[in-house]
Each structure stands twice: as C-alpha cells, then as structure tokens.
Amino acid sequence: MKKRFLALAIMASTFSMHAMAADIEANMVKQVVEVTTPAFADFLATNPLDIAQITSDFVNQATKSSSVESSFSNSHVASSTANGVSSFEIVAVGSSNVGWESISATQLSTNLDHSGSDLYVTAIMLGMGYSDGATLNGLAKQAFKNQALCGADLHDCLPGDTLSGFMFYFDYSGQESGTFNTSAHSIAIPFGYWSDSIYIN
Question: Which positions ≥6 away from 5 have C-beta within 8 Å?
C-alpha cells in the first residue's frame, strides 16, 4: 500500500504551525477565513476545482475502510474533544496543461500529463492535525492554503459547523514531473504520522 500509518507519539514541541483556514473553538467553527494567492485565484478562474465531487469521492473511498467509518458517522455530532487524524490522502493534481485530475486512494501515478507552467496538488486530512509539508523533486514546501471541511460530507465550513478536517493546497508551479510526497501528524488521539505520495507525469 502506498499509505503508511506509524503509531508514533508526537511531542507538542515538534508540531509545525501554520495559519488555519478557520477560527475554531471546541471543535466548532466560529469564523471562516479565506486565504489564497492571486496566482491560484487566476488558475481557478480558468480551471475550477469541483470540491464537492473531490470530497464526495474521498468520503466514498474512506467509508469503505473500517478504520475511518466511525469518524464519519460521528463527525456531525458537536464535541469539545477533537478526533486525531484518521485518514490523509492526496485527492487531486491540477496543471495548466490539463486542469484538475482526481486521484483515487490506490492510484500510484497521475493518468494525465501535467506539464505546463502551473502545478497544484491537494490533500485531505480527516481529523485534527497538521500538515508536515510536501516535497517534489527534492523541493520542500508548506501548504499555501488550508481549507476547513465540516460535517460527514466534508462541505465548506460555515460558522457553527463541526470541524471534520482540512484540505491542503500545495503550489509546485515550475515543476513538471516527479514523485510528490506529503505527510501529516495528529494533534489528538490517535497520535501518529500519516503520509501519501504519487508520481506526477
């Protein structure tokens, strides 16, 4: 399998901190904060990302796994205790050459040629944790955008919604092919480290 879960306790001092996409208190979204870059906004204007379809595909694949099924069934219930990461997957690759390509949980490489000047990769994390960043061709980067996802259907969060996870966006514009690696870690039980990778053609 291309994904690995290592049961490692992560000390709080090693957490990589970055801006979140929402003001969250007791696992409840208080305010949504839209953060993006002008280049990505321009890219989306000509290559719209169907987030509803991406999250629907992710939910359908994830609920087939017994390890995350209980997280989905309880994700709509308000709780002051956040669940740790139960799933972390690369879900889409977008490029100026072909637009967006959805990535399945078992896919090892893109089916399309993502050459061109713009290259973006998205990953969904179910549960509370932090992205550890990503690498492509040895170039390490942090996510430039974190989108809060709520409810069992992982919709865009609104104030008052219960947080389910995040979609992370990585900008590798200027790169054309290679192995993309990304990882995340939990900040609640179950503590651990998650990773995923895909070869981008």
Answer: 192, 193, 194
Handedness of CA 177, 120, 44, 41 (dihedral sign): negative
Which residues are CB-neighbours of 201 under 8 A, at least 6 positions away?
109, 110, 111, 112, 113, 114, 177
Question: What digits encode the pLDDT tens for the residues 23-44?
Answer: 565 566 766 666 678 888 888 8
Paired tokens of 88: 């972390």
Of 69, 88, 92, which Cα lies nearest the Cα of 127? 88
pLDDT band at 115 (very low <50, low <70, confident <90, very high): confident
3-24 mean pLDDT? 39
Most confident of 8-17, 44-53, 69-78, 191-200: 191-200
Give per-residue pLDDT as tens, 149-170: 998 889 888 888 888 999 999 9
- How many angstroms separate the Cα of 30 from the Cα of each of 26, 52, 72, 118, 161? 10, 22, 21, 33, 8
Length of the chain: 201
Q: How far apart are CA 49 and CA 52, in angstroms?
A: 9
- 167: burial class by Cβ within 10 Å (0-12, 13-18, 19+)? buried
The values of phi and psi at residue 73, to 5°, are: -70, -25
Give the SS3 label for residue 42.
Answer: helix
